[in-house]
Amino acid sequence: MRPGGTPDRIAIGWIVRQNCRMPSTHLAFHVHVVFSTKNREPWLAPTPRPRVHEYIGGVLTAENVFPHMIGGMGDHLHALIGLRATHCLADVVQRMKSVSSRWIHEELRLAGFAWQEGYGAFSVSPSHLERVARSRIRTSITG
To answer: What residues have CB less than 8 Å from 32, skipping those under 6 apart?
Structure first.
């Protein structure tokens, strides 16, 4: 026993570790998020689309989320993002959609624009970030 009554060895499953302490939090939580416009209508024309993607990147950055890459077509959006331990994915996506929707109404003057309810979210291994960015998101930007 160490001072304070803590054990020198901690049993974890079948493994016994000496002086096991977690000094800090390490999290590699990368997510590929996909959501569409209401009824999959192609609201986002090629010209303003990069502005929408940049704006959403700014929204994410303001929320302390790392936007690896954002892309999409006229009727849907892809975002490859890195989250912190304190983030709630549903809150991040809700913020992305609500803030960008308001901006699209005001800046692009698309009064009828709306994002569809719901989203798809898929965890991505750090070793597969580039592959997902290249095969899913860059392809959606270039068509």
So the answer is: 78, 79, 80, 121, 122, 124, 132, 136, 137
